[in-house]
Amino acid sequence: MLRLSGLLPLYFPRLLGGVDDRLRARQLVRGMGMCDITVIRRPSRIQGNLLVFRLRQGPRDLVVKHPRDGRGAATVARERRALQQLRADERLGPWRPLLPRTVDSGPRLSGTLVQSRLPGTLAERLIREGPQDPGRAAAPALRLLADLRCATGRRRPAAERTACWCAPQLAVLRAEIPSYGAGRGAAALQALRRRLDAALAGAVLTEGWTHGDYHAGNVLLEGDPLRVSGVFDWGNAQADGPCEIDAYTFVLALRSMLTGRPHGVIVADSLRTGRLPDGDAALLALAGVDPDRDIGDPSALALLTWLWHVAGNLRKSPRFGRSHWWLTATVAPVLRESCRWARAADTHLRR
């Protein structure tokens, strides 16, 4: 099984642990009286270093995130800290009801993150049920980002923020993907860094509150017409991040969901052609983002979004970095394209 683990889809091992998860959740709430427990298994993500379950007890409807290991504890701590900062930010006053509210868990659930359960239906579910009209669910989610960026952001040359926006994420790739620690792998990461520097050299982005994992599986909608009723999983949030990547994270995940093409293949195509896929610009416009006008280089948005996506997954679970399946679909295409670009750039310099 250990030899096959790198070849299996990442969600497969967790399917085998479903019974264990339910027993563990029951054990955590033992002594709390009558309650109903539902382990949360979302189709868009593996169950990694967190056990997540819904806890209903009388009028209380909660979501519990229990760390399985030290990495999970760090994830819980990051999200708790981000939610505290978000609630303290007066600029977010009208949008605070969209945030999960942290609940005192008491000694029984010490070390966990217990939150109020937000109302609504996952945007991801609505899109899967009506793929012929994905814009119905995507539009309100993207328009919310325009409002938040206007409320908290300011325009900054991206080259001035690479130490904050790129260096930590690149460090995660180096640390978490064993095959890229030396030799050709290390050279590929160096080519990626050069490609990032070139793409961001003339780009201008908005610095402000960035969710960092804003996709249809983290957004709740309700009403007619649909409106955003909640946004959760703020563990990758940053108060001074590049806001526009939230919009493209949503669009990129949506395109991957509808076409079945992996993130890495889509982004590699954008790097090769110098433009985003047809239709993406119209979706980004709903979030108030025009890559050509506002950023200068569409590939800068695609590459920076991909970098945050990959680093975020690697932080959640070390299994990503050891999965041949995930690396081949998500990481390798972008690194190959970065190496091709670096070779072309070196050839041009020698002439």
What features would you describe in this structure?
Helix content is 51%, strand content 15%. With 351 residues, it is α+β, with helices and mostly antiparallel strands. The strands form three sheets. A four-stranded antiparallel β-sheet has the order 1-2-3-4. A three-stranded antiparallel β-sheet has the order 5-8-9. The protein is globular.
Attribute tags:
single chain, 351 residues, alpha+beta, 4-stranded antiparallel beta sheet, 3-stranded antiparallel beta sheet, 15 helices, 51% helix, disordered N terminus
Query: What share of residues is helical?
Result: 40-55%
Sheet/helix structural class: alpha+beta
Distance between the termini: 52 Å
Number of helices: 15
Helix and strand sequence: HHEEEHEEHHEHHHEEEEHHHHHHH
Rg over CA atoms: 20 Å
Output mean pLDDT.
Answer: 89
DSSP, total strands: 10
Please state how the strands of the largest beta sheet are arranged side by side.
1-2-3-4
Regions with little confidence, pLDDT below 50 for 5+ residues: 1-5
Largest sheet: 4 strands, antiparallel
Strand content: 5-15%
Silhouette: globular
